[in-house]
Amino acid sequence: MNFDGVINCTAVALPGMIERKTGKVVTIISDAGRWGDAGMEIYAAAKAGAAGFMRSVARGMGRYNINANCVVIGAMGTPMIEERMAKDPERAKRILEKYIIRRLGKPTDVANMVVFLTSSASDYITGQVYPVNGGFTFAL
Fold first, then answer.
1. Per-residue pLDDT tens digits for 25-52
2. What is the pTM (predicted TM-score) of this model?
3. CA angle 130-70-39, nearest 5°?
4. CATH code, domain carrying 6
5. Which residues, other chains included, contact 121 with Cβ-Cβ below 8 Å and sequence gap of 6+?
């Protein structure tokens, strides 16, 4: 479902963008697609697949002035995650030690990158993967 959703949403959006000869496609994926997670192999593969798919979309759609990029997120401060961390403070501490910025991500952290990637400020950026993950992993 994770990978199918990316493909299906992109397939619905692209024809209008091609017709207008402009557009921005941004996919949000998990760091599991870059880092891998034991016990979450299928999920990690789907997220890595979404990143590869966006790079291919970028290559194919550039001639139509369509940009395609990914935002990679780390642990986010969702109610479910915050509840789990509150129940096990020692585990929460171990998780947060993996992040250079010692906190969970906030929706605004991700939204700011998406706003940038969908604005004219990013018109010359395509096929890239941007981590918004508090320093959990790095990209070249």
1. 999 999 888 888 889 899 999 999 999 9
2. 0.89
3. 90
4. 3.40.50.720
5. none
